């Protein structure tokens, strides 16, 4: 683990509101500036005592089609779009108050978060941001899916996704990769929206889930493409999967420097990689501390 750029927070508070996809409840999200080394802290403003939880892989809980974290009664669902925006915009310290357990679905993308953060402004802080530089290839498999982390020569992280869909005629096979800079993410990735097939939507409705969600709230694909909607990019689905990958790996809690590619992976496989990277970061930090201690002893 090596020290990199200075840490950042937002300059002023910003707010968003909307309904959750899964709970259908109206939720307010307020993002506040935070001191150095706070990290991303999620707060349940609707619960007694306003319990909090770090947005960290160590607090991750298993869930279908989304990424959740929890600390006791402080549960937070579908945090990946928020986390992707914070990570890509290089916001390291932020307290996020949420008036419910599920973050709002908004338009199914990270763009509303990006717009709010851009309006809040950025503050450069005195502390340095820790980074994990990938110096080996790590590959994890799950059935026919896999995810890899490998070294990158440029020093700028690269995220990519290859989508291979089983059902013919609904969503085409597609791929997308990008260097993760604030400009590229904001322009080319943040607007990419959540998507499901028509059959998946019907299955969710049959279980009483997301009945309030309309065809304009996300992309629903039928045999002839999006239903009552249009794609923002030809490969919007792959771009959104890359967005999810950024948000899920942001739970490692450090700046990642490497190339991260997923083939047909989802939140669960992303979570496994985040856990592996966290373990690597912890080991690397321990080595740095030992090296620093030895350097001080020699200097004495």
Question: What's a concise summary of this model?
Answer:
The chain is built from six helices and 19 strands. The protein is of the alpha+beta class and about 300 residues long.
Tell me what you see in this structure.
The strands form five sheets. The chain has a five-stranded mixed β-sheet, with helices on one face. The chain has one domain (2-299): lpxc deacetylase, domain 1 (Ribosomal Protein S5, domain 2, 2-Layer Sandwich), CATH 3.30.230. It contains six helices and 19 strands. It is an alpha+beta fold and 300 residues long. This is UDP-3-O-acyl-N-acetylglucosamine deacetylase. Pathway: Glycolipid biosynthesis; lipid IV(A) biosynthesis; lipid IV(A) from (3R)-3-hydroxytetradecanoyl-[acyl-carrier-protein] and UDP-N-acetyl-alpha-D-glucosamine: step 2/6.
List the helices and strands and how they pair.
Layout: E1 2-10, E2 14-19, E3 26-33, E4 40-44, E5 52-54, E6 60-61, E7 68-71, E8 74-76, H1 80-88, E9 94-98, H2 111-120, E10 122-133, E11 138-142, E12 145-150, E13 158-163, E14 174-179, H3 182-189, E15 195-197, H4 198-206, E16 219-222, E17 225-226, H5 236-249, E18 255-257, E19 259-263, H6 267-299
Parallel strand pairs: 4-9, 10-18, 13-19, 15-16
Antiparallel strand pairs: 1-10, 2-3, 3-9, 4-5, 6-7, 7-8, 11-12, 12-19, 13-14, 16-17
Helix pairs in contact: 1-2, 1-5, 5-6
């Amino acid at each position: 683990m090596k020290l990199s750029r200075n840490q950042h927070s937002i300059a002023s508070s910003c707010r968003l509101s909307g309904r959750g996809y899964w709970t259908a409840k109206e939720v307010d999200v307020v993002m506040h500036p935070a001191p150095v080394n706070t990290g991303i802290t999620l707060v349940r403003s609707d619960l007694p005592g306003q319990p909090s939880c770090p947005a960290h892989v160590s607090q991750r809980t298993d869930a279908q089609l989304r990424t959740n974290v929890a600390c006791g009664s402080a549960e937070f669902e579908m945090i990946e779009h928020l986390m992707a925006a914070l990570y890509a915009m290089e916001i390291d310290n932020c307290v996020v108050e949420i008036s419910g357990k599920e973050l709002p679905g908004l338009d199914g993308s990270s763009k509303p978060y990006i717009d709010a953060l851009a309006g809040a402004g950025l503050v450069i802080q005195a502390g340095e941001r820790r980074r994990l530089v990938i110096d080996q290839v790590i590959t994890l498999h799950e059935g026919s899916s896999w995810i890899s982390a490998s070294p990158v020569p440029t020093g700028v992280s690269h995220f990519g996704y290859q989508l291979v869909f089983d059902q013919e005629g609904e969503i085409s096979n597609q791929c997308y990769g990008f260097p993760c800079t604030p400009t590229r993410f904001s322009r080319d990735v943040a607007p990419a929206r959540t998507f499901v097939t028509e059959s998946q939507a019907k299955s969710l409705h049959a279980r009483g889930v997301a009945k309030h969600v309309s065809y304009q709230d996300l992309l629903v694909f039928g045999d002839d493409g999006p239903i009552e909607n249009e794609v923002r990019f030809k490969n919007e689905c792959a771009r959104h999967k890359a967005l999810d990958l950024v948000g899920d790996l942001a739970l490692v809690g450090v700046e990642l420097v490497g190339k991260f590619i997923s083939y047909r992976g989802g939140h669960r496989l992303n979570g496994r990689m985040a856990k592996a990277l966290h373990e690597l970061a912890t080991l690397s930090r321990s080595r740095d501390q030992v090296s620093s201690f030895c350097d001080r002893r020699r200097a004495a």
